[in-house]
Amino acid sequence: MTRAGLARGAMWFGIIITVGLLVVTFLFMHAESTWVHTRAMGPEEAFHYSSTGTELMPLPVFQVLPIIFPDQFQPGGASAGDWVDQFGFIRGKAGVNEGLPQGFFVSNYRPRSGSPSPVPFVGINCSLCHSSRIRRSDNDPGVVVPGMGSTSLDFIAWVDGFKTAVLDKRRMTADNIIDTYEQHFGKKLDLSEKLMIRLWLVQTRKTVEQTEPKVDSPYGGADLRNSALMPNGPSRTQPFRNLVRNIMNRPAALDRGFCKLPVLYEQKDREWGQFDGSVRDRLTRSVLAAMAIGATMENLSMPTISANVQHSIDYTLDLKGPKYSEIFPDQKIDGARVARGEKVYLTYCDSCHGHPDAQGAWVKGKQQGVVFPYQEIGTDRERVTFRYYDVLADSLYEWFPAKQPLRPKREDLRLGPMGTVRGYIGSPLVSAFSHAPYLHNGSVPTMAELINLKPRRNVYYRGDNLYDPVDMGLIVPGQPDLKRYFRFDATERGNSNQGHDYPWSYKGKGWNQADLQDLLEYLKTI
To answer: What is the CB neighbour count within 10 angstroms for residue 201?
Structure first.
């Protein structure tokens, strides 16, 4: 063949290869477009089931992890229940959302990039932390309350158990995941599922290993229930720790700014999204919360995911809290004591917290929304004094690209133009009984103790606690059991139950037992 013939042959070969690549690319793009089936979700459905950019792992992996790693997902032993019980999740319904617990969703987005995936991924959304179950006995199925901060979820311990499993190179292999799934569920995984499991495991293990030098190795097994090692415990989080780690690239090792999982009722009545006045805008608050648990700028910028976040917020704007009389219909409320207690409340509590009018609308107190210095309130200071607190707002603002639609306004972040006071906001007490445990760090289990009708306990045990409708709060035993295992010590750093001595300190000057009993009765009605 002549040189010219060879050149023509090479040219046609190149053309064929190029056309072939274009065809493959087109077919792949077409296939990608069929993997994600987007549809409009209403606010309530978005709150419970939508993706907020926090995909964690392929669905088959999620389903077999507790089988492969009973030591990590049943740290209290088999007698303490399955992983759903032991970490305080709310059990889902069979046939709904793959039967996953409350707050887990299924989507066909990949973690971090948000790219379409042929394999469903499991992630977490707002309702994981902001839904709770009120029970009065261990046999009581209870009432699930959306918008209420979970009183049982031990999420950070669950995350450490998951990370420990990922780092186990002997058991956590793609082959073991695939074999366990196929044997347990009696069906074969297809090629795309097997490939995605392998790709996910390589990337996830790499990510966990890379962060170990900064955040240290995760805990596992029985250590997941050790309050000396895992100090958050049930119903609490450290809201800024991961932001310091992810955005400022610091270990946040000294952060003890614990925060209970707050209620999200009637958010339209709240000027600031965070109760310490650190974040004003609700969207910014939710975006930062999602980023703290794995969402990225890329997937949060996707129209469907960003719309899901906004719809979840919309759900909370007018969300009504539960009524004490509906949750506890057998509890008689004394009308005369309520009337007297209302006068006590209006005298000592209304200025900071406001009150409901005759139609149930919240009337704003004169100082509601004001950030009071923590020194004045006397409550635990760690939430607003941890290292980097004074520079985190600037770091967050500068981290967002200038033209990023999700970039917060600088005045919506404190410390900043709107103020530099380190403290806490008096917020509406909608459905006051469902705010337990009380104070921002969840250190006071009952309302009777918060108003100093009864002395505050320093040491007690938390977990899947039952509810006491008389003292209006959690029943906390003095000794551990299989369900109530976490030792809460109010003398430990970040756990202080001191302060907020309104109307009076316990048996201090002006203390009036009868007035406090009446106040407790009134608080059951708002």
So the answer is: 18
Here the contacts of 332-338 (C-beta below 8 Å, separation 24 or greater) are: 333/521, 333/524, 333/525, 334/521, 337/517, 337/518, 337/521, 337/522, 338/518, 338/521, 338/522, 338/524, 338/525
Highest mean pLDDT among 14-23, 168-177, 364-373 belongs to 168-177
286: burial class by Cβ within 10 Å (0-12, 13-18, 19+)? buried
Angle of helix 241-248 relative to helix 282-292, nearest 10 degrees, comes to 80
**What is the rounded radius of gyration, in angstroms, for the C-alpha atoms of the chain?**
26
pLDDT at 8 over 80: no
β strands within 101-242, DSSP E: 104-109, 116-124, 131-134, 143-146, 236-237
Alpha helix positions (H), 328-404 = 335-348, 350-353, 374-377, 389-399
Tens-place pLDDT, residues 229-286: 999 999 999 999 999 999 999 999 989 999 999 999 999 988 888 989 899 999 999 9
Q: Check whether 342 has a pLDDT greater than 60.
A: yes
The token duo for 83 is 């992983």
Helix (H) / strand (E) containing 58 = strand 55-58
Whether this prediction's pTM lies above 0.85 is answered by: yes
DSSP labels, 137-174: STT---EEEETSPPSS--HHHHHHHHHHHHH-TTT--H
What would the two tokens of residue 119 be?
A: 């394999």
DSSP-derived pairing of the beta strands 259-260 and 355-356:
unpaired
Alpha-carbon gap, residue 208 to 162, rounded angstroms: 10
Helix 191-215 vs helix 155-167: crossing angle, to nearest 10: 110
In single-letter form, the type of residue at position 234 comes to: P
- The distance of Cα 76 from the centroid of its chain, to the nearest Å, equals 22
What lies within 8 Å, CB to CB, of 22 at 6+ separation is none
Half-sphere exposure of 397 (CA within 13 A, CB side): 17
Name the DSSP letter for residue 436: P
Residue 438 carries which DSSP code?
Answer: B
**Rounded-to-integer distance, Cα 103 and Cα 89, Å:** 9
Closest Cα partner for 305 from 148, 129, 127, 112? 112
